[in-house]
């Protein structure tokens, strides 16, 4: 019943794993391509006169039409919605100087930590790089908590979702030119 089977396993394996979704986005951010990604998205921004054309705001006739309208508007105006989010975020930073100071301090602390070989000593203990990142993360979170970053984050997200949902629901998508691409920023899985 038991036979010796010889299988030749020699050779080379050329396995390339393609990262998808969030991993791919994080790879772009780590490689410094995030600004190019955002600028590429912003290059597709639609004219503001078309975005706020009041004659195109109508209530949807039915729920299926509302759903189609919503997704079509999200697809068509995604760069405009990103500008609205960035504008609200900038408004929060400008109107909250303590939060602006906390964000700048966190940014420069991270740059200092990643700039080279740093050794931190607490008493007679020398911290490893992982421990340094943990201390930095805890200090940054505490600083942002003291500056009220949680409230600002929820305000910005809430205001953005409200504005985007209202615009995408009531802007008549039938008045938009037809699009060949469907959801260009969403990757097929």
Polypeptide structure, described:
The protein is built from 8 helices and 2 strands, in the order ααααααββαα. It has a two-stranded antiparallel sheet. It has helices spanning 22-30, 34-42, 48-51, 63-76, 78-95, 97-114, 129-147, 149-170; strands at 120-122, 125-127. β1 and β2 (125-127) form a beta hairpin. It has 189 residues and is mainly α.
What are the key terms here?
about 190 residues, 8 helices, membrane, PRA1 family protein, single chain, mainly alpha
* Estimated helix fraction: 55-70%
Average per-residue pLDDT, rounded, comes to 81
- How many E strands? 2
Our estimate of the beta-strand percent is under 5%
Overall morphology: flat
- The run of helices and strands is HHHHHHEEHH
The low-confidence runs, each spanning 5 or more residues with pLDDT under 50, are none
What is the tally of helical segments? 8
- Main pleated sheet: 2 strands, antiparallel
Query: How far apart are the termini?
Result: 44 Å
Radius of gyration: 25 Å
Structural class: mainly alpha
Q: Largest sheet, order of strands side by side?
A: 1-2
InterPro entries: Prenylated_rab_accept_PRA1
Keywords: Membrane, Transmembrane, Transmembrane helix
GO cellular component, one term: Golgi apparatus
Membrane topology: Multi-pass membrane protein
